Amino acid sequence: MSPLRNAQKWLDERLEWDDLIAPLRKKTVPKHHLSYWYFLGGITLFLFVIQVLTGILLLLYYRPGANEAFESVQYIMTQVQFGWLIRSIHSWSANLMIFTAFAHMFSVLFLKAYRKPRELTWVSGVILLFLVMGFGFSGYLLPWNTLAFFATKVGTEITGQVPVIGKPMMIFLRGGEEVTGATLTRFFGFHVAVLPGLATLLILIHLLLVQRQGISVPPKLEVEWSRNPAAKREMKFFPNFALRELMAWYVALGVLGALAAIFPWNLGVKADPFVPAPAGIKPEWYFLFMFQTLKLIPPKVWFIDGEVLGVLAFGWIGLVWLLLPFFESDDPAHPKPWITGFAVIALAYVAGMSVYGHLAK
Amino acid sequence: MATHNEGINRSDRLSAPVPRRRLVELLLGGGFLATAFAFFYPVLRYLIPPKASDLGSDSVVAGHVGELKPNSGKIFRFGARPGLLIRTASGEYRAMSAICTHLSCTVQYRDDLRSVWCACHNGMYDLNGRNVSGPPPRPLEVFEVQVRGEEIHVRRRREA
Amino acid sequence: MSGQRHRGRARLRPCRKGPQDDGALASEVSRPHSMHVRFSIHEMVLRSCLAVLLLCTLGYSQTKNSCLDCHSALPDPLGVSQETFSHDIHAQQGLTCASCHGGDPTNDDADKAMSRKAGWKGKIDRAQIPQLCGSCHSDAAFMRQYNPSLRTDQLSQYKTSVHGKRLAAGDSKVAVCTDCHSVHDLRAPSDPASTVNPVNVANTCAHCHADAGYMSAYKIPTNQFSEYSKSVHHDALAVRGDLSAPTCTTCHGNHGAAPPGVDKVQNVCSNCHTFQAQMYEKSSHKKAFDAASLPGCVVCHGNHGISHPTDAKLGVGPDTVCMRCHTPGDACDQARAGLLSSLSQLDKAIKNADQVLAVAESSGMEVSEARLGQDQARDSLTKARVTIHSFRTDLVNQDIQAGLKVADKNLQAGQQAMVERNHRRLGLAVSLIAIGLVLIGLRLYIKQIES
After folding, report:
1. Are C103 and C137 members of one domain?
2. Phi, psi at residue C450, to the nearest 5°?
3. What domains, with CATH codes, occur in chain A?
4. A180 touches chain B (CB under 8 A)
5. Which of A275, B24, B79, C244 is 20 to 30 A away from residue C223, measured at CA?
6. Do C434 and B31 touch (CB under 8 A)?
């Protein structure tokens, strides 16, 4: 027997391996003109794995602490062999991952894959998106440079605007009243322990659900295929879809390498709390749409403070977003049109506001 | 994604001519190996600690015992800034920032004057970094010196 | 005087008139620091009540000072508010109005308080002010009781000054102690609000010296302040807050104020600009300027409106100083051109290296050592610019060459970093090719298993 078969037999004798992987053999992926969107989830997962790997490598040299963080990142960038590569890949992959996570979410939204019975997959996914943005926010501070310091200050300040619980939340996030070394330590803890733990758990749930329920198909197609089963088109997950996914992953790897080598991530200037904030401080691009919205809201709307209103509005929209599947109809033949409209507006708003926020001074 | 239902109904191997198969296997195998190398080589190099040991910006090795004669000084690098290491006439070590507080010229130790002097505008500092004459408005930042074995370690003063 | 009510404006009726009142009513045109405070009826009532209240409740002065009972509510020029006087350093030390003006401050009756018998001097005549101030401030034993480290030679210095000499000759328009130090709210020079705090000195001098009308009789320029305001010294002192920078009194003296004298200008400048002065001392230009009675440093740098010297001073443009005297084409002109080109050469070399290092750094390369080395090169350039004052091309070139060596070394380091950066890109290209191979292979494999 070939070595592969030997290994399988060995595992099967101890873990009932064949039974375990049997469903994987049968797993299929629907084939239609929109199937390409199915890659996004896998790419996001791949980028997450890249983050974990490069993150662990960075952990070997990074030192959390206001007086050492910046220097340790500088050390990684300049002294450690290929440190520049690992760090730049980590930073670029973070941005790419957030982008693909958003793209994956919007594709699920437009393909209406969130409808029954996949509501929980959606919910776990949205929570994962929030976690991913939390990863971005906490990780951004870790090099302890001026831009990150002030972006964190502004970001946590906005959190403090939430009525009632805002202030305690802000103090919890900052590890005190102000952004200090304590904030850095805390964010480090969130970034390397709390968030990875939660994310891993949710990813497992998310993947398990996808495994159990199979890949969804756009409603119109589902109606058509249930009427005419012969029209159904599928491909096996292993090896056909998996090989294609692997191609996508390799492309992503190539893009990451190119970005890291040609546009290495900036080090910036070490943060100094006593220096006034540079003009035009902006958060990272994935927060721009919210930031720009808050900037545009007038200081006082009716009797409510503008920023408070903005924060509350985003909170509400976030909640609706989370529970969106429960508003959708169960009948694939008659999906609710307002959700599609809502999705289009949301996409336009996020994209438009991000561009606006980027161009605005 | 060309034709429908790939792999569901047919056997999925040995349908291409042999040299074509060879080429594909070669490409795949070679490619995988090459990319695996491109991945693992940097990671392995990364894992090996670099020679320049990082003591953090808080502490550097400014010199070695015996390097400085009594009543002499030398400039050393402290992070991105120059520092001044002095060995006084009585043999003890002092260290301070070498950036003049007037207009940021690099100061030096004057053995004839037994003081720290700035060549740009004749600023003078004593061995405790205090500005004693000339234009400098503030003292020089003084560092802690610790001799460990053969090495002279200079460290930023710890705040509370 | 607590029962008195003041109605309307400047009426002295409630305080009984004394013989000096008429003179005191006339406003003093030449008092630079007169207080112009207009009182309404309400304000006067309020102020008098407040004054009384303050005196009663705070009692900030140990000694009783009945003068302020009335005078805190009187309008200019007789008014001294409690608040103003609280800032006065003499008041804080326990002196009262009577310490300078005489009279009896313990007496509430105006006539008795301001009586000749009690030693009341009334308004001090301007010509008498230095003597009055000097009566304490020149008495070392007396001043020791208050501040042992205060100098006591101000009066004797003042007598040597232009102001002092002219005052002795009968000119009462010149500055006396109170014109610069203010009066009734006299603060210590270290107080940022003091008129003689280094940051404010130029403004204080300018009160008279920038007033063309006031100075018309003296036939000296009145543009010094406007010139100084544009200068690099003013920028250092007033804008950057560098208290080591000079103001009027630094070069002219304060109590013994007088211009330094043409042949002594170099001495004054050399107090800070030691090296330039040392080099100038040994240079050919010193002999030449002294022989022509030219004021040394001022010839090229100006006196009040000293601007930041640039290399253009060595050029042939509008900022040039050399070509004001030298003929184009002569040996000196050629030397000048040589110096200018050397300086430009080093400046360019430094900027070039900086640029390469910046690009390397932003590409993620380690060049911090070279960046630090650039400071050394810049120091050499600064040194060369100082050595210009020796007017010797060989000395200047020494500094230039040293700087060029360092800049070149750093440029090499930067270029090395760029080579390393290109290696990275090569590595990237190789990896991308490998990835490309895998992608092609996968594509073919997929086609293969699906055909």
Report:
1. no
2. -105, 0
3. 28-277 (1.20.810.10)
4. no
5. C244
6. yes
Query: Cβ A80–B57 below 8 Å, yes or no?
Result: no
For residue C427, the chain A residues in CB contact (below 8 A) are 261
**With the C-alpha atoms ordered A94, A96, A97, A98, is the resulting torsion angle positive or negative?**
positive
What is the ipTM score, two decimals?
A: 0.82
pLDDT tens track for C313-346: 888 888 788 888 888 888 888 889 999 999 999 9
Considering the domain architecture, whether residues C98 and C222 belong to the same structural domain is answered as no
Sort out which chain A residues have CB atoms less than 8 A from B54's CB and list them: 61, 71-72, 75, 79
Do residue C91 and residue C192 come from a single domain? no
Question: What is the model's pLDDT at position C54?
Answer: 56
pLDDT tens digits along B59-79: 788 888 888 899 999 988 887
Task: Give the nearest chain B residue to A87 (CA atoms).
Answer: B46
The domain tally of chain C equals: 3
Q: Do the Cβ atoms of C435 and A261 come within 8 Å?
A: no
Q: Does the B59-155 domain belong in CATH 2.60.120.620? A: no
* Chain B nearest C-alpha distance from A234 (Å): 5
Q: How far is A358 from chain C (nearest CA, A)?
A: 22
Give C134's pLDDT tier (boundaries 50, 70, 90). Answer: very high
Q: Which domain holds residue C366?
A: 331-450
Where do the DSSP E strands lie in C193-266? Answer: none
Nearest CB neighbour to A57, from listed B4, B43, B52: B43
- Reply yes or no on whether the pLDDT at A260 is more than 60: yes
> Mean pLDDT in chain C?
82
CA–CA dist C178, C122 (Å, integer): 16
Choose the mutation target among B47, B51, B57 for the interface with A, i.e. most A CBs under 10 Å.
Answer: B57
From chain B, pick out residues whose CB is under 8 angstroms from the CB of C449: 6-7, 12-13, 15
Tell me which chains share at least 3 CB pairs under 8 Å with chain C: A, B
pLDDT score recorded for residue C40: 63
Domain ranges of chain B: 14-48, 59-155
Asked, for residue C303, whether it belongs to a domain, the answer is no
The answer to whether A261 contacts C438, with C-beta atoms less than 8 Å apart, is no
Q: Tell me the CATH number at C394.
A: 1.20.140
Q: Which of C274, C379, C437 sits opposite B34 (nearest CB)?
A: C437
Using a CB-CB cut-off of 8 Å, the residues of chain C touching B3 are: 450
The C-alpha of C422 sits at a distance from chain A's nearest C-alpha, in angstroms, of 10
The answer to whether residues C61 and C141 belong to one domain is no
Neighboring chain C residues of A248 at a CB cutoff of 8 Å: none
Q: Is C449 an 8 Å CB contact of chain A?
A: yes
Average pLDDT for A343-355: 92
pLDDT tens per residue across span C345-368: 999 999 999 999 988 887 767 787
Regarding whether C370 and C346 lie in a shared domain, the answer is yes
Q: What pTM, to 2 d.p., does this model score?
A: 0.66
Residues in B closer than 8 angstroms to A83, CB to CB, are 46
Helix axes A285-296, A83-110, angle to 10 degrees: 60
